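EI: anyone free to look at a 324-residue chain?
SC: sure, send it
EI:
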Amino acid sequence: MKKIYTLAAVAMSTCFVQNAQEVRTLYVAGTAGQIVNYEQLGNWDIVHPVEVPLKDGKFTIECEGLSAIGVSTKKAMTTEQDGWDIWSENRIGPSQTLSAANLGQPIPVKGPGTGDQKGPDILTPWVGDYVIEITADLKTMTVTTTTPEPEIKYYLYFDGNWNNFAVDKWAFEKEPGMDNVYWLDCTDDNKIGPTSNINVMRDSNWNNWWTSPVRPINLQGETMNWVYKLTNNPEGNSIPEGTVYTGTIKIVVPKEIGSGSILQVTFYPDFMDHDSSAVKEIEIDNNAETEYFNLQGIRVKSVEPGKLYIKKDGSKVSKVIVSK
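SC: here you go
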């Protein structure tokens, strides 16, 4: 009986290799506007994907403005569910999250298959021009780019700022001298009201993001562990009805970005002093009257209610929001 199982396993393995070798064309779909092999993609058009033929023992996919694509060994005949099932079950992708560290290195290919064997989409670590080379046997892929890695930014996203989250008012500020600690002051100008979803996003796309595994989230200064790409959101609002948040948010970014990575997030109920570089330039006079400075350390003659300022009161320096 063991010999039969062994022979069966060998036969299945041989069959898989033969099937892989029989693939002569790959099909590429993705978000609209991306250029693949000099053709512009429609928005996940799996019926009219870009066809990539096998040439010189490999499949070469040259991309401009790439952020996310799917690669399948079969194209769909329809955009109905059965078409998406065919596309998905025959999709191949990298077996690990693409990062700056593994660009240029052969990465094992995952898929085709279903369940845990299903191949993922190809998500780039940043938007740019990439070349993806996949071996003829669909065993490995190598991804390279000519686009330099941009400065990494982290943004706060929630239901109320869907259309404009990737702007400076929602961008976290890196702590000087620290590679993985970032801060965001939520003042009256960018306060957060009741919201269902609330996420921290790396750069301005959906390739990397974290969210809380519980709701409501803690707004009282307790550090939370947020989950990378949580697929099943908990019930309820992250910030409940009747609550408006102002204060300082701190995030500690994990060294490795990808599945299983944890983002440490703290919502302080008050404003925290997280960058003293502007304060250091202020000359302190214990006999002087109270003075106010903006966050760049420039003295202001008048203050506006609801704005965040640096307050110097004698030898004491602090960040405050001027009450109305």
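EI: The chain has a mean pLDDT of 84.
SC: 👍
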